Amino acid sequence: MGWNLSRRKTLILITIIAPFFICANEPIESKKHTQLWKKESGKNFPDILNTLNNYKEVKLYQLTELDIELVNKQLNKKSLEEWKKYIQITYKRMLPFRDFIAEEIIKNQVPIEILYLPIIESAANSMARSNKGATGLWQFMESSSYPYNMEITEWLDERRDFVKSTRGAVSKLNYNYQITGDWLLALAAYNCGLNRVTTTVKNSGVSDYWELSRRGLLPRETVNYIPKLLTVNYILFNKNKFEIPVKWDKNSWDEVELDSAVDLRIIANLSGIPYNTLKQGNSELNYDVTPPVNMDYRIKIPSNYLENFNNALLSQENLMQFYSYKVKSGDTLSEIGYYYGLSTSGLIKYNPGVNPNTLRAGKTLIIPAVKKVEPYNKFNDSRKFINDYIVKDGDTLWDIAVSYKTTVEEIAQNSGLSINSYIKKGMILKVP
Asked: Which residues contact 323 (CB under 8 A, 6 or more apart)?
């Protein structure tokens, strides 16, 4: 599908940034705002992917206005060597997901420069989490992830799912554009919030991102946000100048619906898929096992391993390891779950019909092996909750429980709370 940008503000030559970067330490005399040539690129999807890997200088199109002073200010924050090192590390992280993101961008007619926005948002780390709780490649807050079909459960956090989060981010950016009518403002809104941008534009009467930045009407982070994105794009559209390896092959992934939960370690061994590749492609998982099958989870497999993976599913091998435990008098599901690394609700998923309030001695529980442990013996479990944890902004009981390899129930019980208690910054919780 070709790029049809006639209904939008079109893009300008990325190469305009070249002299700014090369001479970043020298003042540039020019008009504060430079209006640049507009034209449609007319490239189709395969050509764009090929161009992204090419050593030749790319002539894609950028945003319609550039504030030279603000871009130079951003460039001068790092030396050439620092920029090169930063991009080499983050680009390598992004490569497994890059081609999927490019497909979504082209399909939804989003400016190609947004391809590298995850480098700005999360340093291209799908496991990244900000101090405010924003998570994943595209840094979604929990509250902002719900409209985009991203689930957060004991088993997974789909803000870390590169497929769902990319689709969510592209949809969110397109919505921002529909409201603001300008891609620079749409990007600014992605950073500091759509309401903040629209209110600032309305109150100031200024609808130009660069002018809003120059006047200090946007947050400092947002003022730096787009210049930094332009810099990253310039470097990655000119890889040979910055000694960044060119990846000629295309990464593609297939999503496979499972009939039963699988252990990533077992399926990696049977299919020959490198464990780290499988883990990286499914980084939304909180454990090395997929969720119970009734949660409708689709595992992502590198396309070149799909046949091997399907053969592994059809094999007679056990794809999941379980423990069995016979309930004894005095046992509770929360204590059993804590020992095996699961919450009460997690145990119930694999043991439907079990009631935590009427747990009977002699009942055998089936427990997925999310971690390696010896058989449970309540009276030998001497782990004590004697350490203090001071709650930070964005913390949840679930996040803290995962960090300390315990359960929400155990932290709540030892801290004098209910599992539904609200926690806030400064509270002291008891952890192992």
From this structure: 340, 366, 367, 368, 369, 373, 375
